[in-house]
Amino acid sequence: MNILGISCDYHDAAACLLRDGRIVAAAQEERFTRKKHDQEFPAHAIRYCLKAGGIAAKDLDYVGFYDKPLVKFERMLSTYVATFPRSFASFHKAMPVWLRQKLWVKDRIRRELDYQGDILFGEHHQSHAASAFLVSPFREAAILTVDGVGEWSTATYGVGRDTKLELLGELRFPHSLGLLYSAFTYYLGFKVNSAEYKVMGLAPYGDPKYTDAILRDIVDLKDDGSFKMNMKYFNYAHGLTMTNGAFGKLFGGPPRDPEGPLDQRHKDIAASVQKVTEIIMLRMTDHLHRTTGMKNLCLAGGVALNCVANGRILREGPFEDLFIQPAAGDAGGAVGVAAWIYHTLLERPRTNPWEHAYLGPEYSNEEIRQYLDRQGVAYEELPTPELLRRTAQMIDGQNVIGWFQGRMEFGPRALGNRSIIADARNPKNKDIVNLKIKFRESFRPFAPTVLLDRVSDYFELDRPSPYMLLVAQVRPERRVIPSVTHIDGSARIQTIGRAENPLYYDLISEFDRQTGCPVIINTSFNVRGEPIVCTPHDAYLCFMRTHMDHLVMGNFLLDKRAMKPLQEDVDWRTQFELD
Q1: What is the strand order of the sheet 380-381 is part of?
Q2: What is the dihedral angle through the alpha carbons of 27, 29, 34, 38, rounded to the nearest 10 degrees?
């Protein structure tokens, strides 16, 4: 049975193909269109998923869409009416795209796919819950979903048992932890629905001195984690901005200009909203545990990507184990709705728990060779053992390397197949990679990849963290990896086991053999403002436009010193297009 799941029209559009309960392929549209957080109908991602499954649209048994547009439209209209006339500008901007496009999802699916079969719609947070539990290793678990907003829900909690989901409670718009965090993201001069992780990265540089003001004036928080927001400080329900003048007065000035300086006040504000988020998430999970009595917790929704809060839930919360799949935000809704159709609606057994994030396109050595030859690029082709030995040697020699292998990752993190890698022991590499490779803010931390069997040697963590969704402290005696140790002594950890990615595991094992260190820097293979690379062409362009020293694609090694200058005026995609 083939089921296609689709998410789109808000941000991070994606598609997933589920076959007999197993994820065959999943990818975000942004990777193909090169538009970061692309929200448009995921035609390219769908085409890839069908190709990866060796089927056409006519072979699909069901297509699922991750939320209910009509209910979301009802919420928007109700809000606009309740806040008129202040809402007129927002209403005028939103209505054309809704009336022209977003209300007609079923028609778009039939037209784009030439598909005449069944199309089913899940609720937004139901899709999140399904993406958290139905692909988890747990037979039963508590479920918490927290994001900006779906139809009306902004957070839900419930339980999953075998193939069944039961949501027991919810928070409703406009009261939203995701929108609260996004409002501060906007106020701090970062892009909403894109750069919330920058606020999380900035927070350790500040003192959470505004926490009491947030909990006194903005958020009325209850013991069970539910809350109401004082909407006199916010515009998002009816306007074109997230915050208003009252918000600025409370925090000492207007929103920061996106290109303006970051002063200590901004850092303190980031620290404060991060602390409030952690307080709320811990209260929610405590209440969920008291209500359900479950040992295991599944998290989803955009707030589940807040790995600092996740780390605290694991360390300080009442649950014994935690599962978060790598695309916990809206992209994962495509997986969730497909799993919900297969397991919950059709009552098919759960026999294929989530194994890894490597679900996107891959390119053979022959395809990579054709690309390089066609562009006249100089390269060495090396057998795998020699490739690993040389790459580890180059990392030890303080080279920054683009690493392009196997299937692209699903979700916002590069996990060893579309990565930029470097030596975590060199304190200079944090600034080198941030400023000369990624062209991004210097405060941004890097994640370590560590061999799974060595994680507890270096970090205060006793379990796998395969998707970079847990933060833990670096052990004091192991502060020999400064480029992945944040200012507060923490790190956003990726563990790697050989079963999930043999090549990447073997590379770090070889680096450990050569240096005695089982940890390297791993950051996503892209520059600021662009999606993670997908194709050999994307990887080559990113390599040539930055100060990376080497590029490893498949078994091919490229040396920047041997490269001809990049001809930016050439339309490369018309010369060699890789689907």
Answers
A1: 380-381, 556-559, 550-553, 401-404, 418-422, 519-524, 447-451, 490-496, 470-473
A2: -130
pTM above 0.90, yes or no: yes
Expressed in angstroms, the distance from the first to the final Cα of the chain is 25
In the residue annotation, 266 being an active-site residue is answered as no
Closest CA relative to residue 326, chosen from 296, 356, 364, 348: 356
Q: Which of 333, 522, 278, 328 is nearest to 415 (CA)?
A: 522
Confidence grade of residue 441 (pLDDT, cut at 50, 70, 90): confident
CB 159 within 8 A of CB 292: yes
Q: What amino acid occupies position 97?
A: V
Question: Which residue among 11, 125, 238, 343 is the active-site one?
Answer: 11
Longest CA–CA span in the chain (Å) reads: 68
CA dihedral 472, 477, 479, 484 (to 10 degrees): -30
- What one-character-per-residue DSSP string does 47-101 give? HHHHHHHT--GGG-SEEEESS-HHHHHHHHHHHHHHHTTTTHHHHHHHHHHIIII
pLDDT for 361-402, tens place per residue? 999 999 999 999 999 999 999 999 999 999 999 999 999 999
**DSSP element (H, E) containing 163:** none
pLDDT 10s digits, 28-84: 999 999 999 999 999 999 999 999 999 999 999 999 999 999 999 999 999 999 999
Q: How far is CA 531 from CA 12, 215, 220, 299, 536, in A?
A: 11, 36, 37, 24, 14
